[in-house]
Amino acid sequence: MFKRAGGSGPFFREILKYTFGMDKKRFYHPDTGRPLWFGVVVGMALMGVLTGGYHYAGSARLCNTCHSMKHEYSKWQLSKHKQFACIECHMPDTFIVEKLVYKTRAGMNDLFHEVLRDYPATIRLSVKAKNIMNGNCLRCHYSTIENTPMSRGGQNCLKCHRNLVHGQGLEKGGIRIE
Asked: How far apart are CA 93 and CA 152, in angstroms?
């Protein structure tokens, strides 16, 4: 059925023509094929850069570049949670679009305050951030609390474990500006 007839083109074109009713002239043309492949290559490169940027944006190395996070970073390195990236605790455990929206908002807020150098000596979590952190604590530690009253819901892990990873406030008060 799929014999190569003289001048009929490559084998896969015959299959496409048979399967989808596609004419080989509409499927590929030398003038339109090059832009298509160029677009595929550029798209793959862009996807690689965006994926790398997304992962770098959630890394502790990036968080450490901000002056306001130096203390938190040094305490995190000494904690039992040092193997986890910042985003594993500080970002919602949800689908990628919601993560991107949250990370963009949080990142713009952090950048704004970092540029203005107006972060307070003690950085406080918003109600939404506390809920995200509690959810992430439970995601990892649920087997620890499943047979306790905390498993019923409404628990606040940060009430007792607030200083577990980043320690207590800045020892010498305030954020130094060069």
From this structure: 20
Identity of residue 95: F
d(CA 123, CA 170): 10
Phi, psi at residue 135, to the nearest 5°? -60, -40
The residues, any chain, with a CB within 8 Å of residue 17's CB and separated by 6 or more, are 23, 24, 27
Q: Which amino acid is at 158?
A: L
Which distant-in-sequence residues (6+ apart) come within 8 Å of 27 by Cβ?
Answer: 13, 16, 17
CA atoms of 58 and 106, how far apart (whole Å): 11
Note the pLDDT tens digit of each residue in 28-73. 555 655 667 788 889 999 999 998 888 888 888 888 887 777 878 8
Q: Give, as one character, the DSSP assignment of residue 149.
A: G
Using the structure block, give the residue that is written with the tokens 């689908």: 95
